Amino acid sequence: MDTRIVGLASYLPANRVPASYFREFADADSRTLSENPMFAPPAFRHHAGPEESNVDLMCAAIERLPEPAAAAVAGVDVILTHSQLPDLPVVGCGGDVARRLKLSPSLVLDLHNGGCAAFILMLHLARTLFAAGTARTALLLTATNAAGNVFTQDRVRTLPQAAIPGDGAAAAVVSAAADGEGITVREVVLAQHSEYAGDMTAAIDPPRKYWEAGSGQLHVGFTESKIAKVLARGNRLVPEVALAAAAAGGLRGPEVGHLVTNQPNRTFLRNWREALELPPERHPDTFDECGNLFAVGVPHTLATSLAQGRIDRGEPVVLAAFAHAGDFAAAALLQT
C-alpha cells in the first residue's frame, strides 16, 4: 500500500504586513543586524489577529481542502498537529480541532519537537501507522500565529528577528491506497541531532521563567555565536537529508524535479538549492510574501506551487527542512 497525499491546502490571515511596519520601530542596532543574512526581511508577511487561535487557522485551512479530500476529513482515523506557539501551555490543538469539527479519530498526536520539519515528520508517522495496519487515513495540520502575537510586542518588534516570521496554516489528507489519485510518498529520511537540542532558547529581560509574572517580553534568544552555529548547521543538515531522500529513490540532486524546503531566510534558500545543483525556478518558496512560516512553510509552498502549475504530474519532488537550532532534520521524496 502506498502513502498518498490526496488533498492539500493552506490559509494565510488577511492582515498582510509590509516590511515598513518593522522599519518604523527598529532601533539602530536592529538596522545594523538586519544586514545579517539571518535577518534580511521579506517584503511581506501575514499576521494573525489577537483572537485568532491555532485551531482557528487550522480549521480555515481545512475549509480550503479540495474535494474529495474535504469529504474524507469526516472519517479520518488519525489527526496529527503541530503549532509553533501552542494556544495552551499543556495541550496541543488536535483534540480541539476534532471537537470543533465533530470528528471521531482513533488517535490524536500533537507534535512539538518537529519544528519546521514537522510536516515531513507527520508523513513519516502516517506511513508508520498505515504499515502497522492501525490506520488508513490521517489529517495533517500545521499552524503558527506567533508572528502576530509574539513578534509585534512593543519591545520585541524593534528586534531584527521580528520582521522575519509570518502566520498561517496548512492541512493535508493522507491515505493508504494501492493506487488512485494523489501524491505518493516514496521515501522519508529523518535525522535526529539531540546534541543541539539545548541551543534554542527563549529570552526575557529582566530574566524570568516564561510562566512567571513580569514585565519582560518573551522572544527567541539570538547571539552572534548562535547565529553562526545555526547558519553552519542549516547549510549542512538540509542538503544532507534532501540528498539522502533523493538517493533512496535512485536520484542525484540535479535529477530532482523540484525542491521544497522551509524558508528561514534567503541565504539558506540559495545555499540549499546550490547544494543540490538546482536552478532557482526548481526551488520554489513563498518567503517574500509570507516570511518564515516555520512548520507551515513546506506544505504551504508545496500547495502554492501545485496550484500555480509549477510542478508537473509525475515529477519527483523532495521536501526538506531542519528544526530549531538543528536538533532535527527530515526530508521526503514525493512522486506527484
From TrEMBL:
Answer whether the UniProt record assigns the keyword Transferase to this protein: yes
Keywords for this protein: Acyltransferase, Transferase
**InterPro entries of this UniProt entry?**
ACP_syn_III_C, ACP_syn_III_N, Thiolase-like
Beta-ketoacyl-[acyl-carrier-protein] synthase III C-terminal domain mapped to chain residues: 250-335
Top-rank taxon of the source lineage equals: Bacteria
The answer, when asked if Chloroplast is one of the entry's keywords, is no
Q: Which GO terms describe its biological process?
A: fatty acid biosynthetic process; secondary metabolite biosynthetic process
Where does the record locate the signal sequence feature?
none
Residue ranges of domain Beta-ketoacyl-[acyl-carrier-protein] synthase III N-terminal in the record: 113-188
Q: Which GO terms describe its molecular function?
A: 3-oxoacyl-[acyl-carrier-protein] synthase activity
**What name has this protein been given in UniProt?**
3-oxoacyl-[acyl-carrier-protein] synthase III C-terminal domain-containing protein
Q: Which organism is it from?
A: Tsukamurella strandjordii
